[in-house]
Amino acid sequence: MHTRALTLAPCLVLALGAVATGCTDDVGAACARPTDCPAGQTCADGDCVPRYPDAGRPDADPDLRPSRDLTPSADTLADGRSTDGGAGCTPNNNGSVERDEIIFAVPAEVSVTVAENVAVDLAGTQSGGTTTWDLTTLPEQSTRKVAVMPVPGWATPDFAEATYASELMPDYGVLTKTSLLGVFKVTPTALQLLGAVSDKAKHTRLSYGSPLDLLRFPIAKGDTFETSTSVTGYSELYPLVTYTERYAIDVLEQGRLALIPGLTLDTLLVRVTQAVSQAFLPLPEVKTVAFIFVAECYGTVARIIAESDPGAALGKVQAKEAWRLAAP
Description:
Layout: E1 41-44, E2 47-50, E3 96-97, E4 108-120, E5 125-127, E6 130-134, E7 142-149, E8 164-172, E9 178-186, E10 190-198, E11 204-216, E12 219-220, E13 224-235, E14 238-260, E15 263-278, E16 286-295, E17 299-306, E18 317-325
Parallel strand pairs: 6-14
Antiparallel strand pairs: 1-2, 3-12, 4-7, 4-18, 5-6, 7-8, 8-9, 9-10, 10-11, 11-13, 13-14, 14-15, 15-16, 16-17, 17-18
């Protein structure tokens, strides 16, 4: 019985809090430092580019736009920190993503472009001792919104410590379809997964015996850790769900990522290996491997789910799905 597919869905580690409304479209203005650029932009490779692509843009689809201003302020930061109303983050490109370089605000959203069944070069190229990756050639087969939101009201008593919820699966269920949401907690040292709940009341509720660390701050090349927990609850046709979930996190490399034309970022490449074992059924362990690119201030800017474990052969990873932040 597979109660879920990959737990680490696109939205799990997106730092959507550090966004600004009213970003301009004046991309390509020459600059030497972030302060040379208009509000909502930063300096990358001598050009002014959107600091937080598409998030909170006033021309976004009104049916998908959050119900309130996304500009971070003392009352919008989900982790309780104040940014005095400013964007609150400027990348220093020191090869490490500190806790204060990812701001979590609720609600918030960005657009991502998605490609399925594609080969992705995660080995990159070497130039002057720096690894460079290029995702600009990925096909844009579709576009979707990725959002963080409050935990649904019906489930809040079970997750009193949660910081936010974010979609794992948009079309979850057998008889009744609903969105399956991951429930997360942000601490000074980690981004943790607490469980999963359905958007529809009483459809699915899965609770972790102990929080699962998905990222530990500061994030730097060479970091590696494992974390595991038991999972219990119910899911539509199954009144009692029990299984074990285990993650291995490895920060493989630090380098430069060409994300979209005109935007190249200092990023960390993180490998996330998830293994699910059923408690009472004689089924083999189900393992899924994903790769994410994490950048200062932006958070997760791209994610690739591998068809199978590629091991160390990263030059041509066959991906079930690959997404990256969309151009504004």
